[in-house]
Prior knowledge:
Elements: H1 9-27, H2 45-58, E1 62-67, E2 72-77, E3 80-88, E4 94-101, H3 108-119
Antiparallel strand pairs: 1-2, 2-3, 3-4
Helix pairs in contact: 2-3
Amino acid sequence: xxxNFRIPTARRAAAALALCGAVLAMGGCYYxxxxxxxxxxxxxxxxxxxxxxxxxxxQGLSIRTExxxxxxxxxxxxxxTVTANVRQQADGSxxxxxxANGPRDPALIDRVSRSYDAYMGR
Length: 122
């Protein structure tokens, strides 16, 4: 038994053209990533204290003192000492101050500050 089912050449060409058009149209679709949402919620003391401590560790400082009750973190790297003071302000905001003593690496305090900002999402 012989199969006589054949698609005419013009129909085959039209089908191939439609398939190519569909594939090309799908390639033109673009996915938009979600828009980042920022909030204006003030930083909490605990979050700021943890971010300061982690930032100092990230930059290779070994933590010598971590006194959450007084808001003081002291880290050392060789002869360099970096102190972070975390204070709750009267208006509810939190103030974090980094001080360095005897650093052989003058950029150390800047790296700690940038690392802190990254933890805080700034």
